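Go through this one:
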Amino acid sequence: MLEVSDLTRDHVDLSDGFAARRYFAKFAAITDHLARVTQVLAQEALLSTPEETVVSTYVRAVAKTFDALGLKYLLTGRDTGVFFGSLAFDNHESGFPVHREIMQMASDASQAGKHLAGMPDVATLKDRMLREIIGNLSLPTKLQFALSQRLYYEALQSGGLFGVQNDPLAIWLETTGEDPKAARRSYLVHWAVYDSQINLPVVYLLELEDTGRVALAADDTRWPEVQRHLMAQALGGLKLLTIARGFDRDFDDLHPKRLKRIHLGPMYSQAYTRQSGPIQSVLDAARAPEGQDWALALTFEELRSERVEEERKGWFGSVEREVFALDPFAGRGAETGATLMSRALVLPERPYQALVDLDPPGFHDVRKFVVSPQGQVLSYR
């Protein structure tokens, strides 16, 4: 049962233990399928090999985050003697946990060592649980809660989770030019955020050329400035064109050639989210069993540099400025601020069959990735 504590908000609290566990089990399956979808995108050349590696890393981070939250709220709905709340998730726009849940995880992670130092280890807790079951013939609920929190803080301490902000990292791709002074180094810079406005993980991929004297990743001055700049611009409301032009203007020796943004979500499910329109009709018609009643949307935006123009700077100098190509169809480029924009839907077999049968408008150009219970992924245009 889902309880809504404030009807003016688009999120609910998962206060029922069974519903909470099913929710986390659903996302465990979804992130597992999403990792395979990423591989298919690479096979179809929609992601380069370095990009596929990066996106897969972020997908694993999202999966670890859900695993950790599943441990934190494992005893939801049980009388543990301690009030620790319940998972709050956006049941209208995203289907994912609300932003403050990820922020709280970051706070918990900073103090994980302190918490673990004051807790019995796993073996001790299991031994105490066994003694209570055998000796007192009772359920060791409080000890189960203590163990779940122990495992939660261990998961936080192990790292590799998807945070509110995942700072930029640079991957060297190649260097062209024999003269070191005129060398052009190519990098794939990537970063990600958990967008607070839409409660979704968002991944950014920037391919750039570096004509600076010192390689970007080794430059103690430019690299921190680049990181700060990119994180400040990681807002879902900003168009890619705005982000790329601002970067191009602020860094004269860094030349953005391609910028991508990937929204991992929303997730739709009759059991957990409120949706309307065709996707609701599809899920209604599918009547899929538990665990297969879902669909995950993906949005891909891409901005490409079309050509380079020289711009005078100072009395005698000049700098390169990128001219970006916008979507030429129906003037959508100015509206989207991107060269290309596409959507995909990841869904199990039953919802996909319902989608085919209903054939609703607006889904013809959406790429479909159909997943089977055995883990196979089939791609349909």
